[in-house]
Design goal:
There is one protein chain. The chain has 263 residues and is of the alpha/beta class. Helices cover 33% and strands 16% of the residues. It is built from eight helices and ten strands. The chain has helices at 9-26, 38-54, 80-87, 109-122, 159-164, 185-189, 204-212, 245-254; strands spanning 2-6, 31-34, 62-65, 67-69, 99-100, 128-131, 153-156, 179-182, 193-198, 230-235. A seven-stranded parallel β-sheet has the order 1-10-9-6-2-3-5, sandwiched between helices. It has a three-stranded antiparallel β-sheet with strand order 4-8-7. It is globular and about 55 Å long. Bound molecules: fructose -6-phosphate. Residues 35-39, 66-67, 132-134, 138-140 line the site of fructose -6-phosphate.
C-alpha cells in the first residue's frame, strides 16, 4: 500500500483522476469500479474535463458501481444510478450498456446481486476499483462486521451512515433508505488494483484506523491492507491522525512513479 498526501481535496481528486486516466490510456478496454458520494464529485468533474479537452476515451471501458440504495428507482435523484449519470456518464463517451449499477428497485435483491457478480466475471474482473470511506469505516456499503470474504449482497445501513448521507436527502435521516445492495469486501479485494480517495477532517480518525490499525471486520476499509496493489490518496485534513506520514511523504517525493506528479 502507498499513502499519498496532497495539500487539499482538489489536488487529491486531481491526482486520483490522473491515475484513472493513465490506466484507461494504457488499457482502453479497462474495467473500472466506481464509487459515489461527495468525495468523488471532484474526480468525475476532472475526468469530464479530460474527456472534453484531451479526448480521454471511455468508449472501450466498462464500469461497475459499488452500491445502490434498496427501494430507489434509477430515475430517483437520490439513487446512485442518477448520481452517476449526472456526474459522469452523461458527459463522456461510454456506452450506457457498459455501465453497471446495481438495481435497487428489484423485487429479488439476491438475484440482482448474483447477476452483478456474474457480470463482473463475464467482463473479466475489475481492473481498477475506486473507493471512498464512510465515517463508519465502510467501503461500498460494507458496514461494520461485513465479512472480509463477503460478496455482493444486501446490507442494513448503520445510523452513522444514514446520518452522514442525510444531507443528500434534505437533511432528514429518516428519508435515507435503511438498506442497500453493495459489492462485497471480497468482491472489492478481487479487483486488480484499488484506489482509495479520502478527504476532510471528519475522515481523519477512521482513515488512520483503516490504514494503520489492525485488519478487522469492524472497519471494512482496513481490508485494503490485504491487497497487493492499493494506493490511498488523501488531503492534509484527512491525514491529520496518520502516524507514518514522514515515510508517506518520502515516497511521494522520491519514488520514480510519482515524479510526473510532483510540481
Ligand atoms: C458510495 C460508497 C461509499 C462512499 C463513502 C464516502 O458509492 O462507496 O463508501 O464512498 O460513504 O462518502 P462521501 O464521499 O460522501 O463522504
Amino acid at each position: 500500500m502507498e499513502v499519498i498526501i496532497r495539500p487539499d481535496p482538489q489536488q487529491a481528486a486531481w491526482l486520483t483522476a490522473q491515475l484513472i486516466a493513465r490506466r484507461i490510456q494504457a488499457k482502453p478496454d479497462l474495467v473500472l469500479g466506481l464509487a459515489t458520494g461527495r468525495t468523488m464529485e471532484r474526480v468525475y468533474a476532472e475526468l469530464v474535463i479530460m474527456h472534453r479537452r484531451n479526448g480521454l476515451d471511455f468508449s472501450g471501458c466498462k464500469t461497475f458501481n459499488l452500491d445502490e440504495y434498496i427501494g430507489l428507482t434509477a430515475d430517483d435523484p437520490h439513487s446512485y444510478r442518477y448520481y452517476m449519470n449526472q456526474h459522469l456518464f452523461n458527459h463522456i463517451n461510454i456506452a450506457p450498456g457498459h455501465t453497471y449499477v446495481l438495481n435497487g428497485a428489484v423485487a429479488d435483491v439476491k438475484a440482482e446481486a448474483a447477476r452483478f457478480e456474474a457480470a463482473i466475471h463475464t467482463a473479466g474482473g475489475i481492473d481498477l476499483q475506486l473507493l471512498g470511506i464512510g465515517e463508519s469505516g465502510h467501503i461500498g456499503f460494507n458496514e461494520p462486521l461485513s465479512a472480509i470474504m463477503s460478496r455482493t449482497r444486501d446490507k442494513a445501513l448503520t445510523p452513522a451512515t444514514r446520518r452522514q448521507n442525510a444531507a443528500l436527502f434534505g437533511g432528514d435521516m429518516e428519508r435515507v433508505p435503511k438498506r442497500a445492495l453493495t459489492m462485497g469486501v471480497g468482491t472489492i479485494l478481487d479487483a486488480s488494483e484499488l484506489l482509495l480517495l479520502v478527504t476532510g477532517k471528519s475522515k481523519a480518525d477512521i482513515l488512520a484506523r483503516a490504514v494503520e490499525g489492525p485488519i478487522t471486520a469492524m472497519v471494512s476499509a482496513s481490508a485494503v491492507q490485504l491487497h497487493a496493489s492499493c494506493k490511498v490518496i488523501v488531503d492534509e485534513a484527512a491525514a491529520a491522525c496518520l502516524q507514518g506520514r514522514d515515510y508517506y511523504d518520502w515516497i511521494f517525493a522520491n519514488e520514480p512513479e510519482w515524479a510526473e506528479f510532483r510540481s
